[in-house]
Amino acid sequence: SGGKYLRAFGSKGKEPGSFTTCHGLAYDDRYEPPRLLVCDRDNRRLQHFTLEGEFLSLYGPELRRPCAAAIRGDIVALAEIEGAVALLDPEGNLVARIGDNPDQTQWANPKVALVDMLAGKYTTPHGLCWDNEGGLLVSEWNRAGRVVKMVQR
Known about the structure:
Elements: E1 22-28, E2 35-40, E3 45-49, E4 55-59, E5 66-72, E6 75-80, E7 84-88, E8 94-98, E9 125-130, E10 136-140, E11 146-150
Antiparallel strand pairs: 1-2, 2-3, 3-4, 5-6, 6-7, 7-8, 9-10, 10-11
């Protein structure tokens, strides 16, 4: 204990600065001053805020329900619960989608059996982080749990 409540921000809604399933966030030091990047999952978008919680901008293209963000260098990786990981540049442009699952019946479906999951394809990316070598570890929300590591070749 010992923490001190400072403030809350945002409300339920579709307007900029509000959320429908505020899900994950990241400290975004690619900008000066640094920003807070928030995954607004069911509005299919990201939003930038000051570190004090003031809305700055919407960020990125229409996304597939982003759950979590991890930043390495100039790239933000997003766990999109609808079967992919998106990579965005500092301007919010989609650079790539990796592990993109062509079977849309598996997107955001936690009941897919492990034997039915395709190698290298995601079903329900829910969390992610970069390792020290630039590998991307992605956890999936499903009946058994699965962690996938992707590395650059």
